[in-house]
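Notebook entry, structure prediction.
Reason for the run: the old model in the group folder had no record of what sequence produced it. Starting over properly, with the input documented here first.
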Amino acid sequence: MAADRGVRIFTVGFGTAGGAPAEIDGYSVYMRFDEEVLKGIAGITKAEYFHAASAADLKRVYEVLNARYVLENRKTEVTALFAALAAVFALVAGGLSMAWFGRLA
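New structure, fully documented this time:
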């Protein structure tokens, strides 16, 4: 579904594909991932797969991704929309007021 909508999914395999214990915040966690599946997901969505064997490698992966994709800050003028909306509300309020007090011809 993501590929059909043009969403690109960049995948990262952290640790070793065969599995190994990793130390995270003082806890030992056994981590394993399927590298071929991660590559397939990235390939289907026309993105890339990255492998990070260590925390330093993972940091470099995120630096590479951040350098490639920068958000664009664009200003959009919306005051005309609010002014038009206020004018519509004023016309509706005037019409309802005339109907309420029986001043419609």
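Summary: The first helix runs from residue 35 to 44.
The old model has been moved to the deprecated folder.
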